């Protein structure tokens, strides 16, 4: 076996006939498949694999287990050899040494991914050879092996490598056996934990059919509090998966028991998952059952339970929000979106995707709110789709920023009258199409009936009218019509109904239970910080947009004082939290309340600590776009203040300012941009930090594009001359290099007509081709070769600049610097090399 070659980082290159014995644990540099190489034993590679896989030396077996992925790569081309290796792996899994089994299990996810990518018969091979190993190791007597198999199982599920059949017939039965009442305590606790982690990766049918009833039993495990605690911590995930019906029928009683458990840790876990459980119940259950239960947790004798409950209070209140009435909703990532309102043309039209603040408007006479569909888990989620069809256009109410909002639309063929396309729906109406059932306002209409005879008398009902009034025995009035035509309802009658409904709509107790609101408002009480949590005000501030969304604009007065108290809190973390979310609150409140109540607080944040100001700055565009033009213009004078920071080394603050200014440009006229934003941009271009300069060059390009897009060529020319003086003639090479970059960006973004570029900027750019600094010439070469010369204007026959460009590029191709020659000679169609490091 002397011919066996092994490779080490330290230069050793041979090994004796006894395998890996002499190298101990210092074998990380070994080419693990080296034992397959030919040697004096005259064995085939598969025979050599057998020899070391079942060697009496434990270390040899560990090395083979660790290198199984490389072994499979060696034999993957031959089907028979591949099967032989897989059978060897199956036999190795029965090794009596725990370290070998653990090593093998660590490789299973990698092996599974390799097989999935390279083997056409992956599902069969994986299910036959590897899944049984993972399942068997879940009951391994060694703790390390069990933990490794649990981790491997989660990875395999996350990657979608285990099929539903294997989960239902191989994995779940083992978990059910391990969670039997008679099972060993350690095994049972581990199995419950792994089952709760798996539930989020399984289908609803699998969870309901196999795991739900066992989970209910485990929630009531009287002997092991660890089991109940794991169940409580993962209760929300089970509710989300199985949906509303199963939650209310089977899980709700268990949740009540866990919330009243004798151990505070279990009650605390319930408080932490309360929002998820609430999302899986109906509004009636949420109000009548969960609200009193939450009040009991918020009044718990344990401070830790009260602390968790107060932290979850705002999120629980947010589950009472009704997107159809608020017109807004939060996505799972926390983004606030508007529920689009637009009509349906017919069932089956293509969806019109609506992003963020985009709204759907149309020329028709009515609007219909887009109501949320019901998920499998029973929760309603507002849809982001509205149907567009017919001759109705869908337009944005304002121009969205480039790259932030996109509207995608497809036109379908007009509907046909084929019987196959006709569909019936109990909620279908020829005028409203598929509308939600109308609310019951019979009680309000009762108040109008006594006024009907008086109105009829005043109008003088004539004899012979088609409509006659019949008084029934119960005192009601029925209108009989000969032609089944209804008398139109007057606007005054509609207003009276709305007047009857409005007090109930405006009452916050009709939105959320008063006790919950009172508890939330008390979170700013200084006494709470002493008895519950020193950071309770921060949690109140964090969840305030969700509570405001739930209450709606009409009930903002309930939160106004609380918001103002938080905005003046002595803890900067509380003010910082509000600063990061004030733009979302502005969307919820609308322009009038924003101008009256939020703008003064916003102005205060502008003068606060940098830790608070950064929250305002990160969403400056989002807030300013919600203001009226006159109010928005007032902030032009304050943008310069962002250039001053508490710590001059806080360059990320200036970087964020440049990013926001790129977006803000569209909110102002080109005159305002030239007068106010231009100077800030030029100052940022001279920043000491290259990252700030890099983003600021893009800002300069956007400003120039604004000038020419608005037809302000004179302002654009003035700006160009300023760029030439400030950058092209800059005594520092960094400035001259910046000019080359700006020129390239101007050409690539088509910021101005190419004839204007050739006349005003190109001569200065060409003059830098002989700059004494190579880094400047590199960017000049890149700008000319990759951008300028690729424009059709400069390729046209007889172009006045083509000869000069060719001569300059040829000179750069002969430059003494290697990098300059490379970029001057590079094919523009090739992948462009990043030169950011040069700036």
TrEMBL record:
Gene3D superfamilies, A to Z: Leucine-rich Repeat Variant
Protein name: WW-binding domain-containing protein
Segments of this protein annotated with the region Disordered: 357-426
InterPro entries per the UniProt record, alphabetical: 2AA_helical (IPR055231), ARM-like (IPR011989), ARM-type_fold (IPR016024), HEAT_type_2 (IPR021133), PP2A_Regulatory_Subunit_A (IPR051023), WRNPLPNID (IPR033461)
SUPFAM superfamilies (UniProt xref): ARM repeat (SSF48371)
Recorded GO CC terms: cytoplasm
Location of the Phosphatase 2A Regulatory Subunit A helical domain: 89-318
Keywords, in A-Z order: Repeat
Species per Swiss-Prot/TrEMBL record: Oncorhynchus mykiss (Rainbow trout)
Pfam family, one: VPS15-like_hel
Biased amino acid composition, Basic and acidic residues: 368-378
Keyword Repeat appears in the UniProt entry: yes
Domain Putative WW-binding, chain residue ranges per copy: 426-470
Transmembrane segments: none
One MF term in the entry's GO annotations: protein phosphatase regulator activity
Signal peptide (UniProt feature, chain positions): none
PANTHER family on file: SERINE/THREONINE-PROTEIN PHOSPHATASE PP2A 65 KDA REGULATORY SUBUNIT, WW-BINDING DOMAIN-CONTAINING PROTEIN-RELATED
Ranges for the HEAT repeats: 290-328, 761-784
